[in-house]
Amino acid sequence: MRKELIAAILLIGLVLGVALAPVIGRRLVRTDVIEIHARTPENGGWSTMNLEAKVGEPLHLRLTSDDVVHGFALGQTNEPMLEILPGEFVETSLTFDRPGTYTFYCTRWCGVNHWRMRGTIQVSGPEGTPEKSAAPLYVRLGLDLDVAHPEFEAPGLRPSVSRGRALGIEIPEQFAAPAYLREHSPLDLFGELKGLPLGEQLTDQQVWDLVALAWAATVTPQELADGRELYAENCAACHGESGKGDGVMADNLAPDGSDSGMDDHSLPTALAGSPPDDSFGHSITAPSDFTDYQMMLAHNSAALQGKILRGGMGTGMPYWGSIFTEEQTWELVGVLWGFVMEE
Amino acid sequence: MNRLALTSTPWIKNLLTSRWPQFIVRTITLAGFLLTILAGLFGSRVGSHNFAIIFVWIAWWSLLKLVFIPAGGRSWCSICPIPMPGEWLQNGGLLGPGGRPLGLGKRWPRKLNNTWLQSAVFLGMGIFSAVILTQPRISGWALLGLFIAAITLSLVFERRSFCRYLCPIGGFTGLYAQLSPVEIRAVDPVVCAGHTEKTCYTGSAQGYGCPWGNFPAALSQDSNCGLCMECLRTCPHDNLAFNLRPYGSEISAKTPLKLDETFLALVMLGSALVYTAVYMGSWGWLKNAAYHVGTLPWLAYALAFLAITLVVVPGLFFGAVWLGKKMSAAREPLKKLAGLYGSGLLPLGMATWVAFTVSFAFAKISYILPVLSDPFGWGWDLFGTASTNLSLVDLWLSPIAQVGVLAGGLLWSSRLVMRLARDRRQALPVLAFALAHAAGMMWLLVG
């Protein structure tokens, strides 16, 4: 009986030890660290989507992925992006100097609903007040981002900056002003130039080349380089490297047998055929083709920026207003023009 | 007789018959098993960082296929934790007779006294294998299910009914144990004949009656001997020995496989082909189909898996046996011939599973040390090995080893089939079947 007792104690001790290990281990974890698990949106997204912090007090985060590679970044800040590998843990501390609502998001294309992986950090505190940003340009201009535009005769060749420059014609000052170029479309400027005496002497293609020349001044080479980097990281998966709407995720977004849904040349809210849904019960549509002259040249920069800020409203195109800074959105607009105008 | 009685060495005999070493090892494996279930259910969802996936499907499976079965037949069964709590409850004690037994002690239904259920459970788990092997939660639930089933069956039926008739691992382990180099056998049958109490079956104050339901005094096959050593403890005449023997020496024309065992052997061959295609092949669509349980592609995969293992491979084998029978005008019934050649194919079956296991064991061995330090994948580093990336074997060795093992298995089976065949012409179609299987495996593994 004594042997049985010893054996029972040994057995119970080992079994209890094993059973208690996870409980004890969990308790040893730092309590001031918030553990966040990243999962594809179909599997739940971020395990914690709403965080709170105080101005000046570090927010310690411990991040891990439960499935594929994800990324973590904080919108509209210069915080470096973190890579979150499956099963690995990465820690970061964020300190905020201003109250407000900050958006954190996944930076890796983890799936068709990748863009849904967003959460907010509500930062409160006495120091400073939330920064109030001005209303975006499209709001101030009262633009309807979803309005359809009439068809027009598109240029035969891609409007070219170099060909425009070779004409040796100076664009009238009022049409070269940055404000004008943001608030008007290339089609508007084409019409204006055609109405001038010089326009009568030029072919339509030459006028389009002059339009391209004017638009080239809206973005610096550095801004364009930064914009291309942003585009590659955030847009190319759907819209494609070439802007044709043929990114690696595009097949998952297009309704079977449909085109990109751009027939009415509005920005991509219009749908063609029965839209698929995105596993969340929301309809999605194929990504816009930025090389489509009819769609692009009738819009102005303010509308393009507005679309980036606001998103596609029912198309699957995410809103980027809480992620990109205003400068970044203009850099991206510069990249988009590059798809219909060449150097 | 070409046998070396290990129990004639006193310290080996003491080690095998003493209850403490076995109890301690069983307790450790039980603790490890519970840790596995807990890690599976509560640990990281990432398989490569979870003890449940790495320890069960990489470490344990590799040990079972590469060490336990080839070197010791059912030796794993003697320390397997799954039936332990049930058996302890059934016995009413941990260290031998004397306690108050618990349970109904019913006899296992005679109609189920075969390996059909084991084949069914193995195949059932097989069609869900892609998620069981990769998703810790599902792995945890599956292992917990087996654990509960084992305990429940112990409380309802006598002896180790779960191990003998239901355990999906036990079926093929028993088959390949017939090739193993160890056995427990009576030393002198005359002594057994004169022993009226038959304590090796009924039990005594020194030990339990054979937990596997064998009559050890008349044991001639290893397929249902769990090497628990109870019979060594209960024999008052010291007339049972634990022997080393030549590999495959148990296979003979006198002991053909029964129909259920033949089918299990063929199910194992077919399963190995499907698993190799799914897990080692380069067909992404096939992996996706196997993984997405409940979808139409998965249903097609499950049906194909069952068709290959239950119809195609057995059909080809029985066709080969039938052809051989026709070619030689043999008088034995087809069932008997199939059992005969089925036993001849056991070395190829074992080699097939060894080769399959080598394909991932070499590559995944580096995951073992990290999960030892961090079993739940919560970022612990208990033993300082969480970040190690130890690779013991060069990966280039893997295909060479696989081809070598398969070729060895084919050669061994071929010799065995030729030896078992009464007429060499009769064996030719079966040899062609074996060659086709080995070639198929080689193509899938290294082709």
Structure, briefly:
The complex is a heterodimer of chains A (343) and B (447). With 343 residues, chain A is of the alpha/beta class. Chain A contains 14 helices and eight strands.
Would you give an account of this structure?
The complex is a heterodimer of chains A (343) and B (447). Helix content of chain A is 36%, strand content 13%. Chain A has 343 residues and is an alpha/beta fold. In chain A, strands 2-8-7-4-5 form a 5-stranded mixed sheet, with no helix packed on it. Chain A has a 3-stranded mixed sheet with strand order 1-3-6, with no helix packed on it. In chain A, β4 and β5 (82-84) form a beta hairpin. Chain A starts with a helix and ends in a 6-residue tail after the last helix. Chain B has 20 helices and 5 strands. Chain B has helices at residues 10-17, 19-42, 51-72, 84-91, 116-127, 129-132, 136-156, 161-166, 168-177, 189-193, 199-202, 230-234, 259-280, 284-291, 296-328, 334-344, 346-364, 368-373, 397-420, 424-446, and strands at residues 4-5, 182-186, 203-204, 207-208, 240-244. A 3-stranded antiparallel sheet of chain B has the order 1-5-2, with no helix packed on it. In chain B, a hairpin with a 2-residue loop joins β3 (203-204) and β4 (207-208). At the A-B interface, α1 and β3 of A face α2 of B.
